[in-house]
Amino acid sequence: MYRGDCRELLRRIPAGTIDVVIADPPFYLDVPNEETVIDHYIKKNGMKPRFRQEWDKFVDADDYQQFSDSLFEQLQRVVAPTGSVFVFTVHNNLGLIDLAVRRAGLTVLHHIVWAKRNPAPVLSTRRLQFSHETIVWCAKTPDYVFNYNTLKASGFEGDRFKAKGKQHRDIIEASTSNAESVGHPAQKPIGVYRRLLEIAGRQGGILLDPLAGSGTAAIAAMEFGMRCIMIELDDRYVEIIKRRVSRNDNGRGR
pLDDT value at position 94? Predict the structure, then answer.
């Protein structure tokens, strides 16, 4: 567990040493700082406040693109020739992230859809209900690990898109992480991280999460049999991660 700016700390990791990267960068939701009529109706209906996190604020799209370019330049450097990089995105930042990974020299293999069984309701009558996130899967070389046979033989409880003996589609069906919540506003479920490792993980290998947040990557790595390197800038989340990891298998895999 390392505390600091991932773009700086990644420079300390030797090139080509990471088997899998799972990154969950800022969304760039661009929510106004001032409350609007939408916020009034949210409060009136007892819904969760709009997403206003300091780490999600950027001056403009160019500022966000510069952040992404510098991040993926380092991720491309540290990932092994047989490794994979998975990046969580939403509709706001998908295009910018896709551009950044391509600029960094990574090849986009898939846009994997995480279909949410229990999406949050949308107050606005001018939008569809947001029911999925896109995970960009990319690799450094054509020799990336893909656990095709094991994946094909596997079934995953509750996932209507993956039956045993059938090829895995570019869709993962899973609930959000409400039951697993440890206090991070953008926490992802362990099951989705674990599925990404089922796709491209390597037993005994190294998983890197450069924006560790709630520490879900470490828990998934322990369950799968990988070691994990985590980087997080915010002291609040560093403490959450430490407590969470210590409760799981006495901290194995830190």
Answer: 97
**How many structural domains compose the chain?**
1
H helical segments located in the chain? 6-9, 37-44, 61-78, 94-103, 148-153, 190-200, 216-224, 235-247
| Structure tokens given for 40 | 């009034």
- CA–CA separation, 164 and 7 (whole Å): 40
Per-residue confidence at 252, pLDDT binned at 50, 70, 90?
very low
**pLDDT tens track for 123-153:** 767 789 999 999 999 999 999 999 999 999 9
Pairing of strands 107-116, 2-3: unpaired
CATH, residue 189: 3.40.50.150
Taking only Cα atoms into account, the Rg of the chain, rounded to an integer number of angstroms, comes to 18
Residue 86 vs residues 45, 83, 207, 242, 250: alpha-carbon distances, Å: 36, 10, 11, 23, 27
- The domain in which residue 145 lies consists of 2-29+61-119+132-251
**Residue in the structure block whose two tokens are 């990932």:** 79
